[in-house]
């Protein structure tokens, strides 16, 4: 029977926040046999209960990953990746900016505790308002910029991709969508960089349809909040976080739009915002700078200005 080398250590992912997104992400990581998982939450018993439930599903799902639920950051020690989902969820009528003050306090607290236990981890931020919380998490963590990433671009592009597929009546597997900017009403879906097997969608549908899809993408999260009434999206956000974790741990160097630190790209500095980047085992390997038209760049800078305004409130 084959054995692991003596120095082998299973990859370890800590998910901070045992809500819907965190719990679903833990399930995806374990059931895809990607890594051992630690679910950490301030609520006594909740992460322990979720972990036990996931363990009881382990034989049915046919994997052997360890899953721990805890309120103690000592249990998160030596994590390879930390995914921050903790924070107040957005409710109907609440903008992402409304969450700023409350979630900033949460991010400051949990990031300091988590990075103290895992100083070499890659940190993925899911907490809203995402771009601002990613900037704050970077400041608090003291990590190099390439080790801190905000998730939302993957999610926003997936929503754009879904709406394109629905409009054209085709498989979403044949679509690549590109969305830049902040995660919110001022995000920047880019139709000419969004393709169906290499064909730009601008050649496949009229401007009116594209404009409608762009607007629906910008309000993708709010639409779900309104429909659910008592919650917010978690299937798609957890799937978006999962593919990022997978690209890191398997060093796949996939290219995603995500909130990364800009130091001059797109004419922007000292900000985390959604742009395409290459993601591998060491975090952000490369920021990709697209050649935007003047109107596209102006829209991107408008989105950046809103983020910087909120950063100034931290």
List the helices and strands and how they pair.
Layout (H helix, E strand, L loop, with lengths): L11 E5 L3 H12 L4 E5 L5 H11 L1 H4 L5 E4 L10 E4 L15 H18 L4 E4 L4 H12 L6 E3 L1 H17 L6 E2 L2 E2 L7 E2 L5 E2 L2 E2 L6 H12 L1 H9 L6 H15 L4 E10 L5 E12 L2 E5 L6 H18 L3
Helix pairs in contact: 1-9, 4-5, 5-10, 6-7, 6-9
What does this 3D model show about the protein?
The chain has 314 residues and is of the alpha/beta class. It has two domains: 140 residues, NAD(P)-binding Rossmann-like Domain (Rossmann fold); 159 residues, Alpha-Beta Complex (L-2-Hydroxyisocaproate Dehydrogenase, Chain A, domain 2), CATH 3.90.110.10. Helix content is 41%, strand content 20%. Helix 5 links the parallel strand 5 and strand 6. Helix 5 packs across helix 10 and helix 6 packs antiparallel against helix 7. It starts with 11 loop residues before the first strand and ends with a helix.
The radius of gyration is: 19 Å
Major beta sheet, specifics? 6 strands, parallel
Helical fraction equals: 40-55%
Major beta sheet, strand line-up: 3-2-1-4-5-6
What is the terminal separation in angstroms?
Answer: 55 Å
CATH C-level label of the largest domain: Alpha Beta
In CATH terms, the superfamily of the largest domain is: Lactate dehydrogenase/glycoside hydrolase, family 4, C-terminal
- Tell me the CATH architecture of the largest domain: Alpha-Beta Complex
Query: Using DSSP, what is the number of strands?
Result: 14
Any idea of the CATH topology of the largest domain? Answer: L-2-Hydroxyisocaproate Dehydrogenase, Chain A, domain 2
Average pLDDT for all residues: 95
Secondary-structure element order, as H and E? EHEHHEEHEHEHEEEEEHHHEEEH
Number of helices: 10
